[in-house]
Amino acid sequence: MNIIRNLYIHGRFFIYVAVIAITFLVSFWFPILYSIAWLLVVILIVFFTIDIYVLFNVNKGIEARRILTKKFSNSDENPIPITIKNNYQFRIEANIIDELPFQFQKRDLEEKAFINPQGVWEFEYTVRPVERGEYYFGKLNVYISTFFRIVSRRYKFQENEMVAVYPSYIQMKKYEFLAMNNRLTEFGLKKIRRIGHTLEFEQIKNYITGDDVRTINWKATAKRSQLMVNQYQDEKSQPIYS
């Protein structure tokens, strides 16, 4: 039963069937091809059986891993590495389909690779979330075929993995790094020292040249993907009448 659930017909199988059908058709005009057509049928059945045997004879033919971080940075490109190891004793064709969270509103990622015996294949793709929340990845599906490409065996890995999406901490770290290295002036920021002022918070606004770098609101900057600063006003004494 497990074989039936994970057994898939490769696209090339239908090409083989089409060739045999054409051979039968042409044999009406060239009778000698009739025997050849039946020979091709027998050959296809034999290799069909061999293909199933070599793919399912190994209990753990491949190992695959999707490497996810604990959190994604909102509105940034987040890398997702995938590693596949071939435990078969022959070269395989691997078709990888990674089921992406529905929030990305796009089809599942697909990749194809040829992996040598006992070889390891690695690749990386990126995703860019546009809203905060919990993102659930589906199954990492890998379809394996032999040289004949008559049938494929499906392997499933890492189903229902969740990654939380946070405000753009990548941009926040970038600006913090620039601040530590005194390079914020490259973005038009400069330090202004004010002495003897008592200030109270008024609002958050876009940064403009001349604003105090110490008033940068990092949380708002990460959320808006642009520099935001806290604006203060001089605290004034209020008249009291009695």
Automatic annotation (TrEMBL):
Q: Which residues cross the membrane?
A: none
Q: Show where the DUF58 domain sits.
A: 204-238
Q: Which UniProt keywords apply?
A: Cell cycle, Cell division
The record's section on InterPro entries has: DUF58 (IPR002881)
Any GO BP annotation:
cell division
Does Nucleotide-binding appear among the keywords?
A: no
Cite the PANTHER family for this sequence. Answer: SLR1927 PROTEIN-RELATED (PTHR34351)
Q: What is this protein called?
A: Cell division protein DivIC (FtsB), stabilizes FtsL against RasP cleavage
- What organism does this protein naturally occur in? hydrothermal vent metagenome
